[in-house]
């Protein structure tokens, strides 16, 4: 019985494997695009209804301009390379909200939100393209789907660990569950989140280059972010990479991204 459950789970995981556009990294997708987008649509509406839109018409227009430039360039590339299915469910929206946080995010389905607080860091259209390319990359690479799938797989694994220790003492079972939970969090979930950030940086450089923006500006942007960072960012238990590692990774990717700028 135990072997049957394990083999059934393995079959599901294998059938749910996919690959990220351009990077080719294998990823686990147990959740459909339609399901994720339906959930995110509700969350997006709740957010935009609760946070006031920016009254800065110039910057709002620039956010939309940069968003359209990059999203159209990415869609054109994918269509040209026979990957229309990767963008079939994307319905882009670009918003600037009145909030002092230096932040931006993209929900599944292509809903990108910039906070006014990040504008002093972006400074220019190219700087805004750095952030926009990164956020659009999260949507195109289906990182939200993958994160949900990882959590589902972790829950399956926890159930199996509990089943396999059914004949152990209560204290032993509790210890196994605690150790499994720690291993899943530090060994899988958080590192994958950092991997998503690195991958979004990688794809973001390529995407901004496709739209005609110089990816070298990404290094300048993150140097500004690092200079204005408050406190340290201990990467081992963080969901985001340290600024130093992020910049080093971008510099390594720049030659690849610049090829798309020349095209």
Explain the overall architecture.
The chain is mostly helical and 263 residues long. The protein has one domain. Strand 1 and strand 2 form a beta hairpin. The protein is globular, with a radius of gyration of 20 Å. The N terminus is likely disordered.
Number of domains: 1
How many individual β-strands?
A: 5
Order of helices and strands: HEEHHEEEHHHHHH
Mean pLDDT, all residues: 80
| Helix vs. strand class | mainly alpha
The biggest sheet, with number of strands, parallel, antiparallel or mixed sense and barrel status, is: 3 strands, mixed
Strand composition percent: 5-15%
Radius of gyration: 20 Å
Helical residue percent?
55-70%
Tell me the overall shape. Answer: globular
Please state how the strands of the largest beta sheet are arranged side by side: 3-5-4
Model regions low in confidence, pLDDT < 50 over at least 5 residues: 1-15, 178-189
Cα end-to-end separation: 56 Å
Counting DSSP H or I runs of 4 or more residues, the number of helices is 9
């Amino acid at each position: 019985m135990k072997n049957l459950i394990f083999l059934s789970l393995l079959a599901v995981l294998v059938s749910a494997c996919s690959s990220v556009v351009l990077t080719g990294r294998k990823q686990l997708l147990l959740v459909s695009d339609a399901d994720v987008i339906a959930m995110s649509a509700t969350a997006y509406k709740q957010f935009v209804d609760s946070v006031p839109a920016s009254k800065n018409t110039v910057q709002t227009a620039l956010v939309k301009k940069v968003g359209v430039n990059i999203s159209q360039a990415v869609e054109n590339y994918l269509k040209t390379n026979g990957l229309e299915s990767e963008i079939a469910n994307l319905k882009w929206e670009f918003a600037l909200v009145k909030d002092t946080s230096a932040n931006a995010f993209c929900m599944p389905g292509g809903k990108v939100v910039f906070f006014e607080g990040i504008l002093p860091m972006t400074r220019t259209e190219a700087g805004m393209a750095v952030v926009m390319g990164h956020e659009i990359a999260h949507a195109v690479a289906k990182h939200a789907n993958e994160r949900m799938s990882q959590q589902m797989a972790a829950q399956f694994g926890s159930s199996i660990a509990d089943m396999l220790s059914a004949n152990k003492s209560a204290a032993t079972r509790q210890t196994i569950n605690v150790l499994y939970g720690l291993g899943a969090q530090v060994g899988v979930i958080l590192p994958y989140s950092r991997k998503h950030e690195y991958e979004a940086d990688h794809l973001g450089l390529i995407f901004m280059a496709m739209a005609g923006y110089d990816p070298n500006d990404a290094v300048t942007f993150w140097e500004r972010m690092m200079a204005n960072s408050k406190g340290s960012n201990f990467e081992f238990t963080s969901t985001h990479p340290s600024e130093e590692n992020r910049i080093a990774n971008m510099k390594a990717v720049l030659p690849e991204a610049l090829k798309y700028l020349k095209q």
